[in-house]
Amino acid sequence: MVEVGLxxxxxxILVAAALVGVLAVRLNQPTIIGYILTGVVIGPVxxxxxxxxxxxxxxxxxxxxxxxFLLGIxxxxxxxxxxxxxxxxxxxxxxxxxxxxxxGLAVVxxxxxxxxxxxxxxxxxxxxxxVIKMLNDKGEATSLHGKIDVGVLLAQDIxxxxxxxxxxxxxxxxxxxxxxxxxxxxxLVTITxxxxxxxxxxxxxxxxxxxxxxxxxxxxxxxxxLFLFVxxxxxxxxxxAPFGVDAYLSVEMGAFLAGLAIAQLPYSKDLQGRxxxxxxxFVMVFFVSVALDFEAADLLEYWQEAIIVAVVLMVAKFVxxxxxxxxxxxxxxxTFLGSINMVQVSEFGxxxxxxxxxxxxxxxxxxxxxxxxxxALITMSVSVYFVQYNRQLFARVExxxxxxxxxxxxxxADTDYRDHVVVIGYDEIARRALRILxxxxxxxxxxxxxxxxxxxxxxxGYEALFGDVKYAKIRKDAGVNYADFVFSSSxxxxxxEILLTETKEETTVFVExxxxxxxxxxxxxxxxxxxxxPQLGVAQFIEYLESYFQNRSVFNRKIAADLELxxxxxxxxxxxxxxxxxxx
Amino acid sequence: MTDVALLTALAILFVIAGPLLLIAKAVRLSVIPSLIxxxxxxxxxxxxxxxxxxxxxxxxxAFLVFTFSVQIHTERVRMVVSDSEVVAIIQALxxxxxxxxxxxxxxxxxxxxxxxxxxxxEPLTIEQALFxxxxxxxxxxxxxxxxxxxxxxxxVHDYLSSEIDSFNDLLAVFLLLVVSAGTFTLDPVATxxxxxxxxxxxxxxxxxYLFGVIERFAxxxxxxxxxxxxxxxxGFLGAAEFLETSIVVGAFAAxxxxxxxxxxxxxxFNGLTSIREFxxxxxxxxxxxxxxxxxxxxxxxxxxxxxxxVVPVATIALGLIILTVVIKPIVTVALLVYHGYDRxxxxxxxxxxxxxxxxxxxxxxxxxxxxxxxxxxxxAIILAAAVSxxxxxxxxxxxxxxxxxxxxRGWLGKPYHTVDDWNTVPDGISNxxxxxxxxxxxxxxxxxxxxxxxxYVVIENNPQMLPNLRANCDAYVLGDALEPETIDVANLKxxxxxxxxxxxxxxxxxxxxxxxxxxxxxxxxxxxMAAELIERGAVYVIVPDxxxxxxxxxHLEALLNGKYDPAELRSKSxxxxxxxxxxSHPSTAESTTSTGEFE
Lengths: 584, 599
Known about the structure:
By secondary structure, chain A is mainly alpha-helical. Helices cover 67% and strands 4% of the residues of chain A. Chain A has two domains: 397 residues, Na+/H+ antiporter like fold; 148 residues, Rossmann fold. Chain A has 25 helices and six strands. A six-stranded parallel sheet of chain A has the order 3-2-1-4-5-6, with helices on both faces. In chain A, helix 20 links the parallel strand 2 and strand 3. Chain B folds into two domains: 402 residues, Na+/H+ antiporter like fold (Up-down Bundle), CATH 1.20.1530.20; 161 residues, Rossmann fold. Classes of the chains: A mainly alpha (584), B mainly alpha (599). The interface between A and B is large, with 116 and 111 residues.
């Protein structure tokens, strides 16, 4: 039997990264910076206490796979459809322009032509991790500039994935070779994409429909789905070898497409909440292990060049984005904010550079990887402050930018909920409440984590959101903190307490409780009314019972409405399953 | 072993597990045995580096124990040992002893070598036998109660199962501590316990003082908090390794160190759940992968040569399966019935216990890693766990049906306590109200009847309610409302009205059968079912949510029409709350059926 200890390198990495990560949060730095620094400190560059092992490498690989999977899950076609045209028109010229700037700078500085190409390819993306995280923290992810930025980031990510696939194919020998590789990659990517989209149309909906009520099963099957794509992408050379095709597909591409297929299902938001923490954990290992392969000399070899390139790139990125957004006729504030957020070099730049080091023979050496990493580190750290204070900056510079003000700016329809009703859970009580509430409110969204319920809600003409309210993501999508009325027919204390802390003071909140103690606590937390279903039920029943003993005809009259309801089951929107509905 | 990257091995594992999980769902099996099966398949492919997988798998164990520990330490600590815990202790003892005896017997039989080449390479010592005993004794929370998707209506047995299971889990953690001592001799055990105490004490210190610092440092960032808690766990695991005690102890201590603040850190705990499920899946699959089966081709070619080496494993596994699937439920039922539980609740609780628990699997793995357990016994335990979990699924899904067959064949004998032991019903009572179930609703109904001087009889089947019944009920009978004796005592036939607050199908059926002569009100949660019950003669059907909705609608409408302002509604309902201060008992409330026993 094998002697097993808990992998000490993993332990050191996790503990050290947690410490530095927490410190980074304290100092308002992105956690990524903390993680990379951790790698620097505990790796060969610093104390040299950790060496990469199979476990850390695997976790790092998983980190990337999960990051791309998560990104894929977020790619809902319908959410970004109205922005697709401007985003394509912005992202392609932007990447070309920045790629050229990066390439040009690298050629001027002491890098070879080939290295300069890789550097150009590595610096053209902005950081998904930094921008999305900052936007989320500031609550700007669903603002117009937030949506544009997210869209552009996704477009960039697709390009990253293709470039990674090309790099995975190894060093091309000629331009024709590049084209051939690119062609194979494009064909494979297309086939996989078509397979993924076909699956999301025909295979996944009935499949997930059956299992989604079982949260753990849903999660594990989704992960199994991810690994299916990872496995195929990883082993595609072996799979296609009998056909004489020399093919490569990156694990990241596979993971992304696996996510994309799930994204189109109504259950994707719920899954995001579940995949996110695993991604956080593994991505952390990934970022730490980035620096584990460096020597200090490599990272700092080109430090002067890195500073120059970082400064020039940030300026160039801002100018390019500003010009393009302005060209797409977005208003001045959106244009400015959308641009200032995107000035950094992405972690995917490091990924591209890592891939370029790992090709055989390598495109770039560890020094150049160190250079790209340093540029990314500098630009990310600086840009965090730009994002943090973007509005203050805008207020300062607005007077000087007035000549770019649009006369007739694009303002896509705001699809977010405001002053609406959020109903949590769909049972008899919620249904009755809905019928009353719909007389007063136009916007009602019902959140439930049961497929049959969600279908019934939609059939009844309400907006349904599939998901578990215990996830912040779901509460955000339902707009809990902007709601005018929140009605929770869940009697889980945790959920109701969260709802009460998240809603505004003036929001009317009805929640359900199982016991008097819980009810009391919920009132203390500011509930306007606590529904105690069993007690209410008993109270009503005792009313009936009183008339049963006093006067049978009164009793019969009183229960007539209920009996009618039971007989027809029609007063409420149709629903025939049991409330739990879990066992199909 | 074929050389495959760990990532590929993981990918293959999950790719095989996915379809198996789907099949399992279709035939209503639970997740854990499916994962073990997936592991079994992958194990036969011989592509898994056991050492590496075990490292990941042990993270699964760590997270499992960690979250378990976070859960339990926040619950109140009771000093009183309840009936069900007494049952748990005796049951575990009996099964443990039986398991040890069986293993020793099997060991001797195998030594004597009934077949020419059958036998174990190493003798089956008392230590090995003890592990078999542990496997036989412990069932578990996850398999027993948490995983099943069947809707829970029979609250008495759910409550019993979860109490017995939680107790088993606690016992398992204690055993792990002992196992990690590396041997069963007294001295190291004491040392290990000492280390365990040190770890736990550290955990308490961390909880009191350090955790607040971590909270402040994380600055409200969910990600930092999540990573910090993971790091805390890893730190404790590291300490456990350093002290050469089991990582389980470390994980348990880490759980204690964490302050559970479900509201503020809901995202963090959600995150921990996801991470746990991922590693736990790897853990169970790895467990399956560690079992070596003879390859089908070998069996086809040389049946005897292929099968003989697995005879010892199969023998021990079979014995364990019989112990857990047959003997354990019998012991459980007998004990529960002796304590006054009815036959049905007891039987169904018994069916919840009929498997080798996942903590036994953890104990086995830790013992294997520490070199205490020889591989054949380990494999036998794992096989028995997989098979018994699968069987447990079946018995759980069809518990009611099995129970009815058993009663019909008279296997359960007659009730152990006679109905006269526990009833206060006056003779010749008639025109009374029969209230079935003394839960929250039942209590209100009793108050109502007493308020009107309306004679009534309460039928309740949970012996834990006895003190309450004695104190507050003029006329009650403790027993199964389906047993003829109970029906006689309650004089059901001459009642004016039967109100059943229990949502139990057999009970509802039974009451409807007398609906011709007595008014019957039954209860169901399902609206379509309610319509059917009315058709079949019920005067009224309690659909709790429907009734509640009627009342709620008044409040809501008044608020929206401006009849109340929010402050008014609030103060009015807070006042109502004061009035309605019914004590809440965890079990029984809207519970059910049968009290009956063995002789």
